[in-house]
Predict the 3D structure of the following.
Amino acid sequence: MFSLPFFENERNGPKDAPQRSSEQEAQTNAEPPTTIPTDAFRNPDNVQIQVALDTFFMRIYPIPGYAFLHRASLYDRFHRGQTDQCLLLAIIAISTCLTEVDSAKREYAAQCLKKAEQLIINNLSQPSIIRTQALLLIVRCKMCLGEYSSAFPLVSLLSRFAFSLRLNYDDQRVCFLAREARRRLMWAIYMLDQTWAAGLLEFTTCPVDAIYVGLPCPEETWELDVCPETEVQLKSQTKLPGLLAADVCVSYLRDKILRCREQCTHHAAQIAGILTSLMDLRLEFPILPLDMAVCAYQCIRLLVHGQRTYGHKISVSRERVKQYQHSCLQIIQTVARTSPSVETIEHDLKSLIDETQDQNAHPENRPRHIQQQGPRQILSIHSLIARSEFVDDSDELALQEVHASDNPSAYEKHNHEYGGPLSTLELPSPLPSFDTVEHMTPGSTVASQMWLQGGNAFEGAWDEPGIGFDLIRQMQWDGMGYFG
């Protein structure tokens, strides 16, 4: 049975115990509805556990992010009474939340979720594979309930558990069933982590380069405990062993695509260097292909955009960029001699170069949002980080501008700002796009303030003044020329 928390005895203690203040009552009332008092929790019976296990393996287990529990071994441990408590509670929580609509059952599932999380937090110094499985289900359940703010820190804890247990390495000392369970758990954690990271290095806690295990085996061999003859690695060219392995590969490709956005500028610099080397030969080029003009044009645009967005990550100097601009402009002018349709690109590139040089020579002429723009994060439209209601309280660290001598009433109001209940506090605004709040439009949402709102890596990258980009017009190039 579950032991009662320490404050249960206090509630049943002497009647002359001090009464709670109105502020404490307000804090209790301000708690979200998902916060369930732990003293109201009751232990689930075997029937509830059996129903939850059946529901999980019948309806939830086929989802790739949940296919890390072995049905036969888990049922065997349950009937022998050797199943970890937090794992059973996590299974009850996720099974109920994803399949039930009854409010009473969902409320009990929330209690199980809270209790399972409590058991894991109380045993942080003793990680185990079973508790790691339970924690993964807890994070998944919180994501389904929309509790992103509380799920986010648990993802890093989950990765710490995995690496401390050496799940990223194959253990040849254990049987195949245990080895495959470790492998599936590791890949499930990786897929969860890359969903949260969305290609950002600072949010990555489970890098794929640190995983040295093969892909999950086919479901039939996993269920029947039959060791396959060969193991397939993530980056191998052999046939994928099953659907779960294919899903891992798709997650890996998505992660690589998101991370390649910052490499576009690097590739543009490499191509511009090749074109510059070609022009340094000082050869006569009577005819050049039209694609070369397009390539030179896009290289300069990506370099200019990259210096403004990823300037702290680009190793190309401004002098080198100027040299690239001059060489690429020469190539475009060479193509324009025989293809008048390229003149439009030539004029656009000249305007961009002149504007960039003017802004570099006179920084005060830049638009305000470009002057103050520094390194920033680029969140995809489906980023879970943007959905998390984190609060930026940086303003609380600075000295207050209001002084008592200037405005005593304002000073008194500020000192008593936190004297009332929590519902009267003016909390700082959320941190949706990691940009200055003063530049946001009134009434804007989290998604509307994020860069890259579209479904491709370049959409939204050309919204700044001087970097206008007509994608439709650029896609009209073919082997016959430019149709403007």
Q: What stands out?
A: Residues 1-38, 368-375, 410-484 have pLDDT under 50 and may be disordered. The first strand starts at residue 477 and ends at 478. Strands lie at 477-478, 481-482. The longest helix spans residues 176-197.
